[in-house]
Fold these 3 entries.
Entry 1:
Amino acid sequence: MMLRGCQKQMIVLQTPESGVFESAFFVLRRENLSVGHDDMIAEANRIIGNGVGVRRRVRHLPERLLIFLLGVALGVGVFALICFLRQI
């Protein structure tokens, strides 16, 4: 990541309780420099809080098995159709 310009202001949040992240960096917009320090920290915590719940969806075994069986059935159907068309 490259910061452009001569002067940027940023907030660094240290997260010692996290087992994944050590710190988070937020680069401030130039047009919102009149916002108070507490408001900036609250907004940074809100952004972090919204991102915590994002997790990859895990498919359960029955769903995976159903998808596999549908794929096998489709493959057998295509193979049977090709064999039938070759005999005509």
Entry 2:
Amino acid sequence: MSSNKHIFNLQDLSTRIKLLISSSKKRINVNINNEILHTYWQIGELIIERETENNIDLKSSRVLILELSKILTIQIGKGFSRSNLTYMRLFYLKYPNGVTMSHQQSWSHFIEFLKIENDLERNFYEKQSSLENWSVRELRRQKDSALFQRLALSKDKEGVLKLSKEGQTIKSDEDLIKDPYVLEFLGIPEKSKYSEKQLETKIIENLQKFLLELGKGFAFIGSQYRITLNNTHFYIDLVFYHRILKCFVVIDLKIGEVKHTDIGQMNMYLNYFKEEENVEDDNDPIGIILVASKDEIMIKYATGGLSNKVFVSKYQTYLPNKNILEEKMRKIINQ
């Protein structure tokens, strides 16, 4: 009897079968997605071929697509709206050699890419979306928050071109930093009054979105993280660990302008983490002070000579003016 129980203890076998099925489903979904993308690309190719053969201009092309949409919707069904066919046509034009990137991106992802006119910007979002496995909703949010432009403004022309080609690669502490950080997802109206505690609470309530804004590699450790020095308790607003750089990232929130004492306090926190929290193979911690406003000259003098890595970045609770950021980026490219 005990022998039979041993034979029919199928938990391990069922677990292995579930993993096999799960893996198979993923491969099937990838193959289906690849076929959809390839088919839509071919439809775009056929539309462009018809236009070329008949010397059709853009205005006539719109009429062609509208009539084609009506016919295909009757004959095949949903999925061939005028809008969708227009994107298929554009899909072929923007990717004349086909799609060579990782096909974890869905057709809905590509529609978002195709809405971007600037090639450098489009290339960045393609690469970054693949690197960070963004959902379509996350991709839209990053576009709306002008992530590419915000990252590009901290680079020279060569850096912008590399950013477009490779996405944001995290190789040093400087690669982690954005200025500004956009926190529109907190739902705090522009120019409204709130306390640092309320700001922190809103961030914790929207932690997943805050992690998306921070970027790839952040793991949340805790809020109001207590440290004790000389029998005095200090509470750090937010503590994260960065898996790629292998270091703690300590974040302090300030609703007003940063003061030199805030920088000194952050320096103390980082010294504590180096001595008390770091383990073997951990790199030196990084400190980020998020502020509503800042004086660059004061920050320069307050951080000068520090051995610790202290960064001061602005945050804003509303989406940036993308046109202004794009104009600044064009100046960098045209230098």
Entry 3:
Amino acid sequence: MNKLELISALKREANISKAEAAKVIQLFFDYMSDALARGSRVEVRGLCSFYVKEYKSYTGRNPKTGEKVLIRTKKLPFIKKGKELRERVDY
């Protein structure tokens, strides 16, 4: 399912216009993104939780030249699936 299909499903189930459904979905994603950007954890009970994992800087190696390269500190988003989702998918 992609974003457009999600909007169509919300439109149909909530009996609202496509523009309103699109705005609701966009607000949902915007708030989630903003929370993750601030370093907060986002949890959707029964589905999954989103969190940001921080990595320290380290010295890597360029595979072509073998030259040492400093890899900067970075933050990456991760998703942890919920128990109910795992059980539903594995039925």
